[in-house]
Amino acid sequence: MKVRRLRRTNVDHEGAAVEARAHRGTWVLAALYPTRDAARKAALLVPGDEAYPCYAAGEFEAYAAFSVDGWTVWVRWVAGGDPLPALPDTMTVRVASRGDWVEDGELGVITVTVAARCARCGGPRGWDTVRPDRFQERGEWFTVDRWRNPCAHQDKCGDVLQESRLRPLPRPAGMAAPRVRFMAHVPEPGSPAGLILAAAEGRPTMHAAQAAELLETEHGLIAEARLIRAEIATRSGHMSAKAAAHFLHTTGKDAR
Asked: Which of 24, 22, 23, 43 is CA-nearest to residue 83?
């Protein structure tokens, strides 16, 4: 099923409820909000029927997730049948790699664990569609995993490998995000991390998303901006601009 098109600050709970009832157990995009608090508040209210009459009490589940466009709210209809499997936090898969923990140019298969939610839209990944795929190269057989994301956003091997290396796994509910410690070595002024720190000077509320936008639009650092956005999604949006600078600096991605 394709993801329903929603613009920033667009809410269509009634439409989502109708679609969810037509496809029991399928997560449906219900709303797109500009802030985390608005999305999480909406997700908490969905199971009841007072704030949103279109959701009958006890018949729907919902969660909020960070996406590249803002904060999304996903809902599914769970009434009228057997209990449905819960959406897991992570998924472990085998992916093909060249140059990652194997000799350069040689093909290898690596087992990695990544988030079970799409890094682009926040919808569920195809964790329940994972299947082995066996292929041959240069006379040798390899087996990797393939899956299909319900949102239709495709996961490329390189992106999955990068996510497994640079993005920490989701933390259990109730655990606080780790504090950013003081950098032992200050980033160079012209490096991506240095540019972010300079922009964040005197702006304690500057978010990592603003830092990513700064790097991409003003300095043309597209790869670094993508890394920050991926990390924001993993941290459920809890990431300041200074934390983004620390992330780039400690992962060695702040060299221009």
From this structure: 24
Q: How many Cα neighbours within 13 Å face the side chain of 163?
A: 29
Per-residue pLDDT tens over the stretch 235-249: 767 788 888 888 888
> In this structure, how many other beta carbons lie within 10 angstroms of the beta carbon of residue 225?
21
Q: How many helices (DSSP H) and strands (DSSP E) are in the chain?
A: 7, 8
DSSP string of 106-133, one letter each residue: -EEEEEEEEESB-TTT-PBPSTTS-EEE
**Parallel, antiparallel, or unpaired for β 140-146 and 107-115?**
unpaired
d(CA 221, CA 216): 5
Report whether pLDDT(217) > 50: yes
- Distance between CA atoms of residues 128 and 124, nearest Å: 10
Q: Helix, strand, coil proportions of the chain in percent (round to 5)?
A: 30, 25, 50
169 to 19, 137, 208, 234: CA distances (angstroms): 31, 32, 18, 7
Q: How many C-beta atoms lie closer than 10 Å to residue 226's C-beta? A: 17
CA distance 85 to 245: 38
Give the Cβ contact number of residue 5 at 10 Å. Answer: 9
For residues 11, 13, 18 and 22, what is the CA-based torsion angle, rounded to 10 degrees? 90
What tokens does 174 get?
A: 């109730």
Stated length of the chain = 256
pTM value?
0.58
Which pairs count as long-range contacts for 203-210, CB under 8 Å and 24+ apart, including other chains? 203/241, 206/240, 206/241, 206/242, 207/239, 207/240, 207/241, 208/232, 208/239, 208/240, 208/241, 208/243, 208/244, 210/241
Residue 44 pLDDT more than 80?
yes
